[in-house]
Design goal:
The protein is an alpha+beta fold. It contains 13 helices and twelve strands.
Amino acid sequence: MIAVFRIALRALRRNILRSFLTMLGIIVGISAVIVGVSMGTGAKAEVDKRIAAMGQNLLTIRSGNMTRGGVRGGFGMAPNLNPSDYEAIRREVSGITAASPEVRTQTQLAAGNQNANVQVTGVSEEYLAARSWNLRGGNNFNDADVRNASKVCLIGATTAKTLFGENIDPVGQVVRIKSAPFTIVGWLEAKGSGSFGDDQDDVLLVPYTSMMKRLSGETRFRSIFVQAESPDAIPDVQEAITELLRQRHQITDGKEDDFMVRTQQETSDFFNANNRIMTILIGFFAGISLVVGGIGIMNIMLVSVTERTREIGIRLAVGARGRDVLRQFLTEAVLLSVCGGTLGIATGYWLAPLLTKFAGFPTLISQSSVLVAFTVSAIIGIVFGFFPALKAARLDPIEALRYE
């Protein structure tokens, strides 16, 4: 077998340029597979990272999906979750470790001679636990602050930097929200961008009662966050919340819910759907390139059989069997394809980091995709090299010796 490999290698080295051009289709196809899969894997990893940053075992209840006067509103458009819904969820649904409503508004803040337009979010004292969010300094507000609608707040890392400068502890400082003074009691750790690419740290958290009574005047919630006690408890908690809210909102059988309970997995699947489509499309075009590369290998091997007809005739005349010739030419085809696959893998490893560096697109090369790419390149050599090898093996020795 070693002798067969050496002969195949020597045959390919006779025309190095032709061999390289033959491998080019395989190189392009395999590198496209590596880069395409790494883009899909990297995008999925980034989405999962951002979803995980929202909190562990988290369920999101969104209001809306109502139709009024023939006009249909989407989820979150019409706030119809009220404080009694939130209290009922905390009281009646088992398997919950934390829950918090969310009331948002975008408004101007002022502190000293600095000001900024920031998202102010009204939440409960359990919000940080539900979102797995730690404090860099200070303390969280408590249940009494929520009951009394106290003018206290937690400040995000970006907002603190904007209003008070780099690495200055803002705890104890006062910010004015719509002329109302709020004392900063806690400084949030940096959390990074959210699932939609927004800056989660450019935020000010206040008790939701303070938001509703002192700032926004709203009486209902657009969303409620609920943290289940374990991943296994999520389906039961989701079902219990759905049944409870349908009962409280008097939604009869056959009627559509005016709310939505979404898990982190559902959110992840929603964002990853486009990534899967992109990966499939890239894989499709890479597959076309691989087929073209395989056809190129078949073509060059047929040319090689024609060029070496007399050599084949001599081998058959001195005792070589048809299967020996078949194995020789099939080895050459597989060697061409595997060399092209190896170069394609190396090219993919080189291109993926460049894509991240210059285009900012997250990539993550998986070892399984490399193994699959290498296997595919070997299979292409066997499939597209078999016919030329079979043609060589079936040559008549006498006719081959007379070939000029």
